[in-house]
Amino acid sequence: MSFFGFGRPADVSIRLSDESTRRRVLHNVSDRKKEPLLLYYDGETIAGMVDVNLKKSNVKKVDHKGIRVEVTGQIELFNDRGNTHDFLFLVKHLAGPESLTSDRSYEFEFPNVEKPHESYHGTNVRLRYFVKATVMRGMAQPNITQELEFVVHMLSAYPNVPNPLKMEVGIEDSLHIEFEYNKSRYHLDEAIIGKISFILVRVKIKHMEIDLIRREQTGSGPSNYMEQESIGKYEIMDGGPAKGEVIPIRLFLKSFQGQPTMKEVAKKFSVRYFLNLVLVDEEDRRYFKQQEITLWRKAYLNENRIPTNQFISSQLPNGNFVNEKAEQPPVDDDKSALVASEAPEAAF
Amino acid sequence: MGAVDDKTIKVPLSDSLQNVKHDAFQMKKQLDELNIDEALNHAATMLQHLQKAYYTPKEYNELFLTVTNELRMVDVMLKDAFEKDAGMAGGEMYEKVQYNPSILPRLYLMVTVGTAMVKTQPELTKAVLDDLVEMSRGVQHPLRGIFLRNYLLQSMRQILPDTAPNQEDPREACVTDSVELLLKNFAEMNKLWVRMQHQGLQRDAPARTAERKEIRNLVGTNLVRISQLDNLTVETYCDKVLPEILTQIVNCRDPLAQTYLMESIIQVFPDEYHLDTMKPFLKAVGDLHTQVNVKNIVNALVDRLSNFATNNEGTLSGKDGDVFSVFSGALGEIIGGRNGLALENVLGMQIPLIQLALTCYKSEPDFINKILHTTAEMVATYLEKNNLTSIPSSSPASRETVALMKLPITVYAADGAPLRILELSNFGDAFGIMANETKKIVATFILEKIMEAEASIDLDHFDAALTVVKCLYNSDTDQPDSEDLDLAARFALLLDNSSPKDNFEMTIRLSEEFSNADTGVKSFLLPTIFARFCQIGRDCSSENPDISKEAFSKAHELVQTLADSELPLISIRLYLQGAASIQHCNFDGSVDLCYEFFTQAFVIYEEEICDSKEQVAALQQLTSTLLKVECFKEEEHASLRSQCVLAASRLLRKADQARAILWTSHVFWSSKVLSPDAKESSELRNEKKVVDQLKKASKTAEKCLEALLRQQLYIEILEKAHFYISDGLENADLQTLADSMSQKIKEKQAETQANADAEKLAAHFEELEIKMKGPSPQVESQGEESAVSDEVNQPEEEAPEESVENNEE
Amino acid sequence: MLVLLVSDLHMPERSPNVPKKFRELLVPGKIQHVLCSGNLTSRTSLDFLRNIAGDVHVVRGDCDRSETSWPDEKVVRIGNLSIGMIHGHQVFPNNSQKALEAVRRSLQVDILVHGSTHEQKVDEIDGNLFINPGSLTGASTSSGDKCQPAFALLDINGSACTLYRYKLGSDNKVDVQPLEFKKRCPAA
Prior knowledge:
The structure holds 3 protein chains of 3 kinds.
Chain A: E1 10-16, E2 24-28, E3 34-41, E4 46-54, E5 62-64, E6 66-77, E7 84-95, E8 98-100, E9 104-110, E10 120-121, E11 125-136, E12 144-153, E13 165-171, E14 175-181, E15 185-187, E16 191-201, E17 205-218, E18 225-238, E19 246-252, E20 262-265, E21 269-281, E22 286-296, E23 332-333, E24 345-347
Parallel strand pairs in A: 3-12, 13-23, 15-22, 22-24
Antiparallel strand pairs in A: 1-4, 2-3, 4-9, 5-8, 6-7, 6-11, 10-11, 11-12, 13-14, 14-16, 16-19, 17-18, 17-21, 20-21, 21-22
Chain B: H1 13-32, H2 36-47, H3 57-84, H4 88-96, H5 103-120, H6 125-135, H7 142-156, H8 175-196, H9 205-214, H10 216-228, H11 234-252, H12 255-268, H13 271-276, H14 278-286, H15 294-312, E1 317-318, E2 321-322, H16 323-337, H17 343-348, H18 350-360, H19 365-386, H20 396-414, H21 420-423, H22 427-432, H23 436-452, H24 459-473, H25 482-492, H26 500-515, H27 519-540, H28 545-564, H29 568-582, H30 590-608, H31 612-628, H32 634-649, H33 654-665, E3 672-674, E4 681-683, H34 687-702, H35 707-726, H36 732-751, H37 756-773, H38 782-792
Antiparallel strand pairs in B: 1-2, 3-4
Helix pairs in contact in B: 1-2, 1-3, 2-3, 2-5, 3-5, 4-5, 5-6, 5-7, 6-8, 7-8, 7-10, 8-10, 8-11, 10-12, 11-12, 11-14, 12-15, 14-16, 15-18, 16-18, 18-19, 18-20, 20-23, 23-24, 24-25, 24-26, 25-27, 26-27, 26-28, 27-28, 27-29, 28-29, 28-30, 29-30, 29-31, 30-31, 31-32, 31-33, 32-33, 33-34, ...
Chain C: E1 2-6, H1 20-25, E2 33-36, H2 43-52, E3 55-58, E4 73-78, E5 81-86, H3 97-107, E6 111-113, E7 121-125, E8 128-132, E9 150-157, E10 160-168, E11 174-182
Pfam family, one (chain A): Vps26
Organism (chain A): Oikopleura dioica
InterPro entries (chain A): Arrestin-like_C, Ig_E-set, Vps26-related
């Protein structure tokens, strides 16, 4: 591709040092497209090579004004195009001006890079990391650049303290249930264990599901945008129960491609998650109740594999959660929030 | 997402089946390529078809069978895969299938993967099965839920832990874990099954009941599985299994489920178990819905236990004591505990009890007596409480009582001892409490059994039998119907006649009983008693002449009772029957008594019979009896035969007169009369009188105005003439009379118009003439015959004779 | 075509029941017609006969109750045979063969079935059959004579028939005697 008749005299490319062994994850590079990108964690060194390859056929020699490499962490608000916010910017100069007559590689290393946020591609905002290599050229000659996006996962650790969500909700004289999720904070490989107890059933329930809702909030003040999106539905009951039935819940968060909860990222945006319990009756009326949960990403010693058998022994939903009896959480009695409605949707 | 509701347009079953095949094909293709994840995805798609619950249970079952049959391929494949990578692979896959957002495919796949996984990791069995049984709660749709759990039941069949509990490591999976699992699954399935009844519109309830019946076995399979566990012990059954099942049954309050499951328990578990759990079982019976036919359940249990007793010989007893006592105690409690239990159900429950007593305690009539007593008491209490005098015979309670009574009768009759029922001391209590109409049913049943066995009733059983029979003719309200009276009468013939004395005594008592009945009833009953007295009289005449004489005098009294009741025709017949019987006896005064019987018959004839038809009938009997009785001397006989002749001439209609005169002619001919020394008897053979009678008949016939009838009478006279001629009576007048009759007949024939009756007469006459002409009847041509007729066609003047009326006097 | 001939049941006056052996033989569905020549005397007897075959013909006997409406005589045609029925108490002298012949002539039948003596008797005279089937119940006669239970069965085939005579012996065994009969002059 040449603007000025000669085209680009050389290609530049970035090789990260452990790219063959480093884990890759699928990540949205645009709204539609996912690519397997290399995964980095906070504090990891980013090192590699920048290769400059001459176009052999017609180029004998390439002059440049210097070569540099940058690592950028950037938040981009789609509603405010062009206004990006770099929360991370590191530069390294690899070479001064010189003439290249043959291909050449330059090593680089950013030691212990602080990557304070998780990569994110949402509706109105994205947060991304990339390495950029630039071969600078003189006037009227465009720089030769190359970008390599990578993904950052934020790992957290929370003590395994049971902090169940338990609530009694209902619509007077019609439907009255108590739901219980074993925690309010889940790491992404975890399963939500819980149960729904039907205390009063005077409507004919057709089915019940749990939706995982992602709420993305960007900007502040007048330019405050909120986007809510269901990222997965999970049917937990088929048919209508009688009074007294207790329906178990086991929802593997892995089945949804959720990401950790992000709050006030660089004061630019937040991403929060909600469990929406929805009951649909035979007349297609929907009854629902949303509960926020915090998602986090857990650090594993050996991250190739999640611990085995977590799906059975320790988390059997025998109606009780682990230690539940010992630590009975206060019931958040939210009956006041009842909404009875003929409308197709009715929130508890 | 699943949840296809019933309003969705129904896909024809054949289409669904086809779609299943299609999905299955895709699934198998992936399996062949060892692409298990993809295969499971296709399996999930295939399983979506089971979401369609708008099919009838039958159709749904077909769909279910097709789908699960295809799933078996997956099972085989998984097992191979898990064997290669025991441990992790199974667990991962078990988790992965749970990512499926639709619950029904998810659970089917969990069952499939889970049960396949534990085949290579048996240590996980209990945890996985527990998980499956629990997670299946997510399907609350009755039909889908039942079938899902049925699939679970099928899949876990081979892997249910079935070892005795390990004392050293109580955590090791064992038979008790299986029991728990199955009980839990059973409880859930039953809940769904019961809930099915309450779906949809009220008016479809009967159809839903029918549909539920079709799939009841699916629920029952849980119990079958429990019973198939080799290491299930009686203790576990008593302490855990039965109590839990019964709790479910009682609490579900659904008549269909209760009936089916109670019967299933009885069927599925071994006899010894039942023996030890009668008390709790029967207690639960008492708590069942009022619509449940408790009797059938108790009956089925009794049947089981009875068979057990038969096969194991010996009195039945379980840990609660002997079966009968436990049963009767439990039934008492059921009855006591169920306030408002309909009387028929209370009574109905006595039936299995009596069945039990009859089968297992044959030699102890006290048990039967006890039941009969209780029954009588219960009814009495009920009547008192409700201020009633009796239970209407058409009511269910009465039907139960009848069934209750019939049982021992049937059993005894089958043993060839139908009278044993009469020996039960409390039989009368139970019988007495019934309404008369109900009693009749039982009485009929007893008598029929006695007759069937051709048994007879002796003096020992007589009183009890009489109590039973009384209801047949002693109706408090209506006129008893003839069938009941027939039966009462037949009872008299069942009395044992091996001892004349006892026989006579019983007959007298019965006679007294019957004589107190209404007139209409008496006419049915007394002739039998009368015949019985006559029979006794005749049978005893040589060896017990005293009894013989007394019997006939009793017979005589009896007819008088009837005669007083204005039953003249029957009285005449019986008097004559008596006379005919006495002639064979030779007790002191027998001939006088015989004569007395005759005289009485004539008196009644004279005084009571007015109807001309009845007169004819009575006169026939008088005459024919006179012809039979051979014990009279000339004087007595003459008196009686003149009575006959006189009566004949006094009949109203000429034709009747003529015919009666013809009959009476026989008393002059073949009557046997004793010689004065009473040593021999000889026929009268009074030719003149006979001929006179015939002449008189012909003159009477002459007066008959109806041509055809007159012609018929002529032929009858000619027949009579032929009779006497061929019997050796040679008399010119007779021949002349015969000829004249022939002549007249021919004349009349010429006059009468041809019709069927006339032709018949002509044919008769023709045959008679041939018969009269020669001893060797030959087939003759019409021509010759008419020529012969011409020959005798010489009309003679009829001898103008004086009427022979009263010439005997 | 099987025709059952019975007479003089006298139930319940003189006999409680049809003997068990006979009841075992006379089951429904085998016999087409039943002819009873008198003295059923009860509804029970009639019901018994009706249970054997749908077509039951009865004539009145001397002991049949006056309220019943049986005729004194009856002619039934079965196959090519005409069968007359009469009880016989109206015939004088009772049970006289000659008198019965007169009855047969007046009825113009091939076979005359009668009763009244309670004694089974079969005669063939001048090509006609006279049958007294005897008492089905073995009821005693009006003068108290004991009788053997008996009945007869006619197997009619066009103008011919075979008569089977059944008697119950004192040993409670059923004795069967066949007799062939063919109508002398079939309808020309």
